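Re: that chain you flagged

S.,

Sorry for the slow reply, it's been a week of failed gels. I finally had a moment to sit down with the sequence you sent. For the record, here it is as I used it:
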Amino acid sequence: MKMNGDPQGIEELKGLSKGRMDYLKYLITEAKTNFDHTAHFKCSTGIKYKLVYDPQNGEFNVIKET
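Prediction finished late last night. Pasting the structure tokens below so you have them in one place:
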């Protein structure tokens, strides 16, 4: 699985893989199955991110929300 986008957001997702794997799996499934292929999450510092799935190439993009 390839991740692109905001480096801080990608690091937050990597951190989730160590402590909250079930939540990370939920985010990935949500992005893959949601009609607009997105899932929103907030990191431990309160910054909001959007995980976007591209079904054409199977890649994920992490975008910082403002």
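What I noticed first: Residues 16 and 24 are 6 Å apart (CA to CA).

Talk soon,
D.
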